[in-house]
Specification:
One of its GO terms (biological process) is amino acid metabolic process. Belongs to the class-I pyridoxal-phosphate-dependent aminotransferase family. This protein is of the alpha/beta class and 402 residues long. It folds into two domains: 139 residues, Aspartate Aminotransferase, domain 1 (Alpha-Beta Complex), CATH 3.90.1150; 236 residues, Aspartate Aminotransferase, domain 2. The chain is 44% helix and 14% strand. The strands form three sheets. It has a seven-stranded mixed beta sheet with strand order 2-8-7-6-5-3-4, with helices on both faces. The chain has a three-stranded antiparallel beta sheet with strand order 9-12-11. The chain has a two-stranded parallel ribbon with strand order 1-10. The radius of gyration is 21 Å and the shape is globular.
Length: 402
């Protein structure tokens, strides 16, 4: 390590572990072992091949040089920002305040740069997506966690309210990152009652100081029940329109379009009109990535004008929702057949399973050629990379490893 490198920049807060586990699984498979690799974070078919949506690739292949080569505006193409916002809230006619970002992670990072100060604390639910810790450390921000509701249990409103009030009292402002619906890594979503409870608390504590709710929306196209997603987004829209809390969203095409490598996303505040916030976000864009790739913006803009392409994309999403639902249900049934609690799942690429000592259980699973990612709260299992047919073997190995 270079002597002038700060200690906080030494590691990737869990990313290295995932890469290491994935590489180990691939080596075992290459050596002829029958491996279940549930470490991956991208959608794979039953042959283990990366899923690439053909409807998206058709639009990509039609891009002209001028839809690819020129610099995009620093804030992003306004048509792209509107189209991406309208994928989530079709009735909106404006994206409000917003900028293009390199994926959802870029959007999250911008909220730390502009809505908190170094040394401040953000609030999010645990377990959470591992790179949250990396993004927070890079931004000089601490993370305070609140418990994600257990399957079948209501939101612990007392714990959530206390944690948020404590942070707001300490630093005079509150930023809540909320990954809902289709929470990563639990694979579950808030009930409507939980959502209404949380929004009521946020509405109340906003009288103490500025509160921002940032919705991290990455997996919505892969929900078991699309109507439940629509209802959740409508609830958040109504809350954002009230204006008591600044409501924004981290939006991404990575999973929705299987364009992981194009790094296309946005940070939008659809119900805001603060020009100072817009200026601050643009300044941060210029001071970090300068501007984002034009090609994926052009792809989405093409989709927004082509009803047939939209229908083809919707059909592909429906197909892969069906596959993921079958995988989740197979795992749930296999676990229950072993006398274990099932794996509740509402959408997304993962489920979380309990483990008293996640690291030890992970190592025992590896001895059986089953690879998962340990977290403080349990095991992250990527059903996005598992076959439904592997569920019985996975469940048996998990039970034997507890």
């Amino acid at each position: 390590m270079l002597p002038h490198l700060l200690p906080s920049r030494r590691d990737f807060s869990g990313d290295d572990l995932i890469f290491t586990l994935n590489a180990a699984a691939q080596r075992r498979a290459a050596g002829g072992a029958s491996v279940i690799n549930a470490t991956v974070g991208a959608l794979l078919d039953d042959a283990g091949k990366l899923v690439v949506l053909e409807s998206v690739m058709q639009q990509w292949r039609q891009l002209t040089p001028m839809e690819v080569a020129p610099y995009a505006p620093i804030a992003g193409d306004p048509a792209f920002l509107l189209a991406l916002t309208q994928r989530h809230w079709p009735s909106l006619t404006s994206y409000g305040i917003g900028v293009a970002t390199p994926g959802g992670s870029g959007a999250l990072a911008l909220t730390l740069r502009n809505l908190l100060e170094r040394g401040n604390t953000l609030v999010t639910a645990a377990p959470y997506w591992g790179p949250y810790a990396t993004i927070a450390a890079e931004g000089g921000v601490r993370i305070a966690t609140v418990p994600y509701p257990a399957p079948g249990e209501a939101l612990d409103v007392g714990a959530w309210e206390q944690a948020m009030r404590d942070v707001l009292d300490e630093q005079g402002r509150l930023l809540l990152w909320l990954n809902d619906p289709c929470h990563n890594p639990t694979g579950r979503s808030f009930t409507r009652a939980d959502r209404e409870t949380l929004l009521s608390v946020l509405r109340d504590i906003a009288s103490q100081g500025p509160v921002t709710l940032l919705l991290d929306l990455a997996y919505l196209d892969y929900a078991r029940d699309p109507q439940a997603v629509t209802e959740a987004l409508e609830d958040y829209a109504a809350f954002g329109a009230e204006g008591s809390v600044l409501v924004g969203a981290s939006l991404s095409l990575s999973k929705a379009f299987t364009l992981y490598g194009s790094r296309a996303g946005a940070l939008v505040f659809p119900w805001a009109a603060d020009k100072a916030l817009q200026s601050a976000l643009v300044t941060s864009c210029r001071g970090t990535w300068s501007n984002c790739a034009r090609a994926p913006m052009s792809v989405l803009s093409r989709f927004s004008k082509d009803a047939d392409a939209q229908a083809a994309l919707a059909a592909e999403h429906a197909q892969w929702r069906t596959v993921l639902t079958a995988r989740a249900e197979a795992l749930d049934a296999a676990l229950r057949a072993e006398g274990l609690p099932g794996a509740a799942w509402d959408g997304g690429f993962f489920v979380t399973l309990a483990a008293a000592d996640p690291q030890v259980v992970t190592e025992r699973l590896q001895e059986r050629d089953v690879f998962v990612v340990p977290m403080p709260e349990g095991l992250r299992v990527g059903i996005c990379g598992m076959r439904a047919a592997d569920a019985p073997r996975f469940a048996a190995a998990y039970k034997a490893s507890l």
